[in-house]
Amino acid sequence: MTASNETLLTGITNHDPRAIGRAISIVENNGEGAADILASLDQERINSVVVTGITGPPGAGKSTLTSGLITILRKTGKRVGIIAVDPSSPISGGAILGDRIRMMDHALDPDVVVRSMATRGRLGGLCASAGATVRIMAAAGCEVILIETVGVGQSEMDIVQLADITVMVLAPGFGDDIQAMKAGLLEVADFLVVNKSDQPGASGLLMDMEQIFAAKEEESGVARVLETVASENKGLVELLQSMDTFSDYLTATGQKEQRRNRALNAETLDWIIEMLRSRFLDAMNESSSQKDPRIRAKEFISKTLQINQ
Amino acid sequence: MTKEQTPFRVLIAKPGLDGHDRGAKFIARALRDQGFEVIYTGIRRTAAEIAATAIQEDVDVVGLSSLSGAHLRLFPEVVRELAARGGSDIPVLGGGVIPDEDITTLLEKGLSGIFTSGTPADAIISSFKKASQHHRNHDSLK
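Output (structure tokens, whole complex):
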């Protein structure tokens, strides 16, 4: 291990923001030393951290809800990590990461570690980089980690795979319950939050969702559909209490371990793709007589990895 | 391992009390369109908040916008706050309504570049690129 990596690791343990930020960049970019850093993190802390994914359509109030949850968690003395994911432009590769705007109340709190992350159009999605960031934040003493992601397509499913608990935030006025069911996410979400519950249409949405979640509630004995007005901090304490109870239920029934194993597989697959990506990009520069993409893929695999399949 | 250059990360922030963020948002979008990852903090931030955010996000460059006339106080304050947090290597660029006679003062106080309303967008983008690349090449933490 290089001297600078050792400095980084010491910095992470000492809660040094510069070291934490830099270590996250290194693993996000899969830069030199990423493997050393990840291998040296405190595994016990990683095991004990609770990772919550917060997802939902744009404008439902995820960032405001997240900021409200941070406030409450901080009052209980917990050190909190937040990974705020926003999409990258498929054209330029750039991104505007704006979730910070609603979290600036916590900017000077040394026990709130925020990291904005762009999706970067990764092949395997976000699991590898967000997962590595979770590990660094846990090693840096964060006891709770919230991953916030916009609910459009792949990135939300990646986060679901990564999180111990998934919270889907909806708000009235986004279409009927059929729209929500279409997303497919309701099946995997653990909690459904009807935010902006003071707005017209909230009670109808709540009733629809309670019906869908009735079986899940019965199974765990925890209220799974909750109302909030995040901008006024209403309902947030109740949400956190339910999440705590549910987290204990997951641990007691062995489901937390199952979910962690699922996350481990998803992250590993992402790393495999990441590690092979550049080799295959190089291979594709070579000429091939094949025009069919599937046949070409097989040819490249057997050439690059020297295996036949 | 990856051979492609990873995107530059920049922070765009508005220190002080003025709430006019059209210019800041314009630059944020222009940078995104050039492949930058732009962390945007919104209006009315203190220098300390901006510096703390820049450190947490491990940005290559901080870009500040001010239209209120308080740039002579606020811009160098961000530079100082960054240095106090171990981020003296992170270049700070500033733009807005800035009289020509203030530019030298700001550069002397540690700003790495100043843009006025007359600066073409291309020139601003290219300054961000140069400053980001310079930061990557001369990273004190590497």
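The first strand of chain A starts at residue 50 and ends at 56.
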